[in-house]
Design brief:
heterodimer; A: Thrombin, subunit H; 25 strands; B: eight-stranded mixed β-sheet
C-alpha cells in the first residue's frame, strides 16, 4: 500500500510505445524512400551531401512543371551549357526560380544515411526530413548527440567508481573487443573517453549525465571527424538525465540490463533508445519508488512515505515536500519538485 | 510544484487545506463536500510555447528593425539578408522545421540598398513557403506587393500569409508590426498577454503607475501601465522578450557570464553551465540552498536582459509600484526578490515592490470583459499582491562619508538614519504600516526631480523600507571574489533566513 500524496510527484515513463522518428535532411540531400515504405534496420534511406553548393540552371531544360524541392537531373544528351555556375554538377534539388533560371542545391561526395530502426516511412520532405514510425518500444532521454546508430547493447564491464549504474568509465577501459557495441557507462563520461570509444569502433555510449564541457569537446571532435574525406561509422551519445553526475535510475538500469546483448538503436529526434524485443517482459517499477532528480541527494532512490506539507529547507526556502525513506535511514523530507517516480 | 502535476489533484489539495485551515469558510463557499473541485468555475491562463521566427530582408540595414520588432513580441528570432548569407544558407535556415514563421520585409519605399535583391529574397521565401505549407508568412512594408507569389501556393496552406505595416511605421516606430506579431505568436488567453491586460486593470484599481516584470522559463515580460485620467483610457505598453527567460535553451558563454556576474556562489563557468542546463531540463527543481541562490542570479541576469531590451519603457516616468511575477521568483524569500528588483531596475525614484504570490495576475487578465476584469481586480486588490518593500533610490550621490540623513515617521514614532553613499540601509517597516521618509541630502540628487530635500510616502513590506544609495546604474567590481563578497553582503541584509 503506497502512502497517499505520491500523485504530487512528477511521473517519468520508463518505457513508452512507438514514436515517430525524424531524420533531418538539408537542401541537396537525396531521399531514397517514399511514404508507406517499410524499413528494416540498415536500409539506406537517403544520401547526405558533404559539400552542397548553389548551381544556376536555365529554366528551359528544367521544364514548366518543376516545383521547389523537386530533383532535377541534366539529361544525358544535353551539353553542359545549362549550367551557368558551379563546377558542373548535373543533378540536384531545385530551390527557387528567378529571372529565367533555377537555383539548385547540388554537390559531390554523398554520404549514405541508413536507418537504425525498423518502421514505416510516414513522410518524406526534401530538404526538411524523413519521418519514420518506429516499430518497438522506446526509452526516452534528455539529449542524444552524434548520428543515429545501432549496435549490441553492452553494460560497462568495469565497476569503476560507485556501484554498477553509478560508474564512471575511463578511456583505458575501452578496447576493440567492444567494437559495434552501444555501451552503458553509468553516471558520467568525459570527452577523451568518447573520442576513444569512437576510435575503438563503438557505436554509442549511454550515460546518465554529460557535462557541458565534455559535450562541447565531443561536438567539436565530431565536426572535425566529419570534415575528413572518408566516411566514419555512426556514433551517438545518449544522455538519460542531464548535465551533472548521478547514477542511472534503477528502473532504467533494469531495462538496460534486460536488453544487454541485444540490438538496440539510438535516435536523435526525439532523443531515444529504440528496441524491438516484444518477448522481453519489463515489469513495472514499484509504485512507491521515488528518485531524487536534483538537489543535495541527487540520484538517490527511496520509498515514498507521504506528504509533509510546506517545509523549511536550506537558506530559509519553504517548499512543498514529501517523506522519503532511503535505505537504512528513517524518512526525511525532500522537496516534491526534486523528486520523480516511475511508471 | 512541477507544472506537469495533474491540475485536479492540485485543486483537491488546495480545497482540503482550505477546509483544514478554516472549516467555516470552506462550508460557506461550499467547497467542503466531495466533488466540489470539479464544480468550481475555472479561469485558465497558460503560457504559449516559444516559437522561432526568421526575419528576412534584402539588406542587413532592413533586417535590423524587423528583428527588433519580432524580439519585442516574444519570438526567438534569427535574421538573414543576401548581404550576409547566400541563398543556400537562407533556404536551409527557412526549411528548418523549428522555424514556424518568416517575416519578410522591406522599407516603404525600399531603400537603395534593398532594391537590387528584393526579387531574390521574395522568390526564395515564396519557394520555401510552397514547400512548407505550415509556415506562417508575414509580408511587411513594400514586400506586400509580392503577395501574388504566395497566393499561388494558397491551396493547401495551413500557415497564414499576412500583410503587415513596415517595421518602422507606427508610434513608436515598429509598434504596429509588433502588435501583429504578438497576435500571431500566441492566442488571446496566453498568460503573458493576460498579464499585460491585468496591468491596466491594476493601475486603474489602485490609481497608480504600475510596472509588472514577469520572468519565466521561456521569456520575460515587462508591462508598464498608467491609470485612466479624467475619462481618457489608461495606457499600457508591454514587451515580451524571449531572450529574457530564466535559462536559454542552450546556454552559451554570454548567458553563463551574465549569470556568473550576479552569482554569490563560488562556481566556475563549466559547472555553472551544467547547473543552468539542469535548471532548463527541470526548472522547478533544486530550489533550496545553493540552488535558490543560483536561481536568483539567473533571474537577475534575465531581468537585466529584459531592461536592456526595453529602453523606451525605461524612459517612461518611473512607476509607483513594481510587481514581480513568474516562475523565476516562485520560491524565493520575499525580501530577496525586492533586492533583486532593486539591483537591476535602477531608476532614481521611490517605488513600492510587490509580489504576485498566488500567480493570479494572468488568470485575472484572461477575463474577456474589460470592465468585469477591472472590477474583480479592484475587489481583491488588497489581497492580490504581497508587499515586499518600499525602495528609495536617489541618483547622483557623490562619494563621501555622509550624503545626508533620513527621518522615517510612522504612527508609532520616528527614527533617523545617516545616509552613507554606496550603502544599503534597511528600516524595519512591517506590511500594512504606512509612513513618510524625509530625506535631507548635502548635495543635489535626483529622486523623481532634482533637489536636496524630499518627503516620500512609504509603505511597509516583508523587507521593510530599503534606502538604496548605491550607484545608478549599479557598478560592480571586476574581480569575481570582490564582486561575490559585495553581492553577498547586500543579500545578507535582506535574505535574513539564509543559513550562514
Amino acid at each position: 500500500m503506497t502512502e497517499p500524496g505520491i500523485e504530487y510527484v512528477l511521473r517519468r515513463p520508463v518505457v513508452e510505445g512507438p514514436i515517430e522518428v525524424r531524420f533531418p535532411l538539408r537542401p541537396g540531400d537525396r531521399a531514397f524512400v517514399a511514404a508507406g515504405d517499410v524499413l528494416v534496420p540498415g536500409s539506406r534511406i537517403a544520401d547526405r551531401l558533404r559539400d552542397t553548393r548553389l548551381v544556376e540552371v536555365r529554366s528551359g531544360p528544367v521544364g514548366a512543371e518543376a516545383r521547389p524541392g523537386d530533383r532535377w537531373t541534366q539529361p544525358s544528351h544535353a551539353t553542359g551549357v545549362q549550367l551557368r555556375r558551379g563546377r558542373g554538377e548535373s543533378s540536384g534539388e531545385l530551390l527557387f526560380e528567378l529571372g529565367g533560371h533555377w537555383r539548385m542545391a547540388a554537390g559531390e561526395h554523398p554520404e549514405q544515411i541508413d536507418t537504425p530502426i525498423a518502421g514505416v516511412v510516414h513522410q518524406v520532405r526534401p530538404g526538411i526530413g524523413i519521418g519514420v514510425r518506429a516499430e518497438g518500444r522506446i526509452l526516452r532521454g534528455v539529449e542524444a548527440i552524434g548520428e543515429p546508430t545501432r549496435g549490441l547493447l553492452a553494460i560497462n564491464p568495469e565497476p569503476g567508481e560507485g556501484s554498477k549504474s553509478g560508474a564512471r568509465l575511463r578511456p583505458g577501459s575501452l578496447d576493440v573487443g567492444l567494437a559495434g557495441a552501444i555501451l552503458v557507462v553509468g553516471s558520467r563520461v568525459d570527452a577523451e573517453t568518447l573520442t576513444r570509444a569512437r576510435a575503438m569502433g563503438l557505436r554509442g555510449i549511454i550515460v546518465a549525465g554529460l557535462a557541458g564541457k565534455d559535450r562541447r569537446d565531443f561536438l567539436a571532435s565530431e565536426a572535425r571527424q566529419r570534415a575528413s574525406l572518408h566516411r566514419l561509422p555512426t556514433f551517438a551519445v545518449f544522455v538519460l538525465d542531464g548535465a551533472v553526475r548521478r547514477k542511472i535510475a534503477s528502473p532504467v538500469a533494469a531495462v538496460l540490463a534486460a536488453l544487454a546483448g541485444r540490438e538496440v538503436a539510438l535516435v536523435l529526434d526525439p532523443p531515444a533508445l529504440v528496441f524491438n524485443e516484444p518477448e522481453i517482459d519489463l515489469p513495472p517499477p514499484p509504485r512507491d519508488l521515488v528518485r531524487v532528480r536534483a538537489g543535495e541527494r541527487i540520484g538517490r532512490e527511496g520509498r515514498w512515505a507521504g506528504l509533509t506539507g510546506l517545509r523549511r529547507f536550506a537558506d530559509g526556502t519553504f517548499l512543498e515536500a514529501g517523506w522519503v525513506a532511503f535505505e537504512g535511514w528513517p524518512p526525511v523530507p525532500v522537496p516534491l519538485a526534486d523528486l520523480e517516480r516511475f511508471g | 510544484m512541477p507544472a506537469g502535476i495533474d491540475v485536479d489533484a492540485l485543486v483537491r489539495l488546495l480545497l482540503s487545506r482550505t477546509g483544514e485551515g478554516d472549516s467555516q469558510l470552506a462550508r460557506t463557499l461550499g467547497i467542503d463536500r466531495a466533488g466540489a473541485a470539479s464544480d468550481l468555475p475555472r479561469l485558465v491562463a497558460q503560457s504559449a510555447r516559444p516559437q522561432r521566427l526568421a526575419a528576412i530582408a534584402a539588406s542587413d540595414r532592413a533586417v535590423a528593425p524587423l528583428e527588433a520588432a519580432a524580439r519585442r513580441s516574444g519570438w526567438r528570432v534569427i535574421g538573414a539578408s543576401p548581404q550576409t548569407a547566400d541563398p543556400l544558407a537562407m533556404t536551409t535556415m527557412l526549411l528548418d522545421p523549428t522555424v514556424e514563421a518568416v517575416l519578410l520585409g522591406a522599407g516603404e519605399p525600399p531603400g537603395p540598398d534593398e532594391r537590387r535583391a528584393l526579387d531574390d529574397v521574395a522568390s526564395l521565401v515564396a519557394a520555401v513557403a510552397a514547400r512548407r505549407p505550415e509556415l506562417s508568412v508575414i509580408l511587411a512594408g513594400s514586400m506586400a506587393e509580392e503577395l501574388s507569389r504566395f497566393e499561388a501556393t494558397e491551396g493547401d496552406r495551413q500557415g497564414e500569409v499576412m500583410l503587415a505595416p513596415a517595421a518602422t511605421s507606427g508610434d513608436p516606430p515598429g509598434a504596429a508590426l509588433r502588435e501583429l506579431l504578438d497576435d500571431l505568436r500566441a492566442p488571446r488567453d496566453d498568460a503573458r498577454r493576460a498579464i499585460a491586460r491585468a496591468a491596466a486593470g491594476l493601475a486603474d484599481a489602485i490609481d497608480r503607475r504600475v510596472e509588472i516584470v514577469d520572468i519565466g522559463l521561456d521569456g520575460g515580460l515587462r508591462a508598464t501601465a498608467a491609470p485612466s485620467v479624467a475619462g481618457s483610457p489608461g495606457r499600457v505598453t508591454a514587451s515580451f522578450i524571449a531572450d529574457a527567460g530564466l535559462v536559454p535553451p542552450d546556454p552559451d558563454d554570454a548567458a553563463v557570464d551574465r549569470v556568473l556576474a550576479w552569482s554569490t556562489v563560488p562556481i566556475d563557468r563549466h559547472r555553472l553551465r551544467d547547473r543552468l542546463r539542469e535548471l532548463r531540463f527541470a526548472p522547478w527543481s533544486d530550489a533550496a540552498g545553493e540552488g535558490a541562490r543560483l536561481r536568483l542570479a539567473a533571474a537577475r541576469a534575465a531581468l537585466a536582459v529584459l531592461m536592456e531590451a526595453t529602453p523606451d519603457q525605461t524612459a517612461e516616468p518611473a512607476p509607483d509600484l513594481i510587481v514581480a511575477t513568474g516562475g523565476a521568483w516562485a520560491v524565493a524569500p520575499g525580501p530577496a526578490i525586492a533586492l533583486a528588483i532593486a539591483d537591476v531596475v535602477r531608476r532614481p525614484a521611490a517605488v513600492s515592490v510587490a509580489y504576485d504570490h498566488a500567480r493570479l495576475l494572468a488568470p485575472l487578465g484572461s477575463i474577456p470583459d474589460a470592465s468585469e476584469r477591472r472590477q474583480l481586480i479592484a475587489d481583491i486588490a488588497d489581497d492580490l499582491l504581497a508587499p515586499l518593500a518600499s525602495v528609495v533610490i536617489p541618483g547622483g550621490i557623490r562619494p563621501g562619508r555622509s550624503a545626508g540623513h533620513v527621518t522615517v515617521r510612522v504612527a508609532a514614532g520616528s527614527s533617523q538614519l545617516e545616509l552613507i553613499p554606496g550603502g544599503l540601509e534597511l528600516v524595519d517597516l512591517p506590511p500594512g504600516e504606512r509612513g513618510t521618509a524625509e530625506l535631507q541630502f548635502r548635495d543635489t540628487v535626483r529622486l523623481g526631480g532634482r533637489g536636496r530635500r524630499f518627503a516620500v510616502e512609504v509603505a511597509g513590506g516583508l523587507g521593510g523600507l530599503l534606502l538604496d544609495l548605491r550607484d545608478v546604474p549599479l557598478r560592480l567590481p571586476d574581480r569575481p571574489e570582490r564582486r561575490r563578497e559585495l553581492l553577498e553582503a547586500w543579500q545578507d541584509s535582506l535574505w535574513v533566513t539564509r543559513d550562514r
